[in-house]
Write a structure and sequence with these properties.
Strand content of chain B: over 45%
Structural class of chain B: mainly beta
Order of helices and strands of chain A: EEEEEEEEEEE
Largest sheet of chain A: 7 strands, mixed
Radius of gyration of chain A: 13 Å
Largest interface: A-B, 26 and 28 residues
Helix content of chain B: under 10%
Number of strands of chain B: 11
Oligomer: heterodimer
Number of helices of chain A: 0
Number of strands of chain A: 11
Largest sheet of chain B: 6 strands, mixed
Structural class of chain A: mainly beta
Number of helices of chain B: 0
Chain lengths: ~110, ~120
């Protein structure tokens, strides 16, 4: 079974630039999550999709972050404009129906300089 | 406001001995607790979970204990192996089923080193 695919693996940008991350969840998984993990911290949920719809985006900084899930499958997370404090690993996860069955991708490490 | 706390940043144990990783939480709405394991450059992988209606769940070498009154849980690994060396995250959710009320809240993680 293929896992959660994320790209790119690494990205370095200057502050005020924009960046986009892509996630392809496990086939058939209706729930998709984007997490932000800052160095030394645990993952923090940014947004949760159920099929096409947003279930929870309470911790998404909506002035600069946006996310969409096309046709209930792939998802992109965008930051525009980036700030230094956005440097983190961005993790995508998907699950079928139970919280414990969330599978994580390898993540995208973003460095904002 | 840190709702899930892993106060010890690191733990080092000898191979074959027991590893005990602790976690405390503050939110009484949490009903489901999980441990994740993370190797460098990889995403977290699910290890073991426990519902609030239980006080113990066992899976091979891994056992999770839950003390609801103390809002405390612990992960026991017996016997510890060098391959267990990783970062372990404690996480909590108000719900077992994904939905509007199932957000996972993670602790900061603890780095376990198992010495050969």
């Amino acid at each position: 079974e293929a896992g959660v695919a994320q790209s790119p693996r690494y990205k370095i940008i200057e502050k005020r630039q924009s960046v986009a991350f892509w996630c392809n969840p496990i086939s058939g998984h209706a729930t998709l999550y984007w997490y932000q993990q800052i160095l030394g911290q645990g993952p923090k949920l940014l947004i949760q999709f159920q099929n096409n719809g947003v279930v929870d985006d309470s911790q998404l900084p909506k002035d600069r972050f946006s996310a969409e899930r096309l046709k209930g499958v792939d998802s992109t997370l965008k930051i525009q404009p980036a700030k230094l404090e956005d440097s983190a690993v961005y993790l995508c996860a998907s699950s079928l129906g139970r919280v414990a069955e969330a599978f994580f991708g390898q993540g995208t490490r973003l460095t904002v300089v | 406001d840190q709702q899930v706390k892993q106060n010890s940043p690191s733990l080092s144990v000898q191979e074959g001995r027991i590893s005990i990783l602790n976690c405390d939480y503050t939110n009484s709405m949490f009903d489901y607790f999980l441990w994740y394991k993370k190797y460098p450059a990889e995403g977290p992988t699910f290890l073991i979970s426990i519902s609030s209606i239980k006080d113990k769940n066992e899976d091979g070498r891994f056992t999770v204990f839950l003390n609801k009154s103390a809002k405390h849980l612990s992960l026991h690994i017996v016997p510890s192996q060098p391959g267990d060396s990783a970062v372990y995250f404690c996480a909590a959710s108000p719900s077992y089923v994904t939905g509007a009320n199932s957000k996972l809240t993670f602790g900061k993680g603890i780095t376990l080193s198992v010495r050969p």
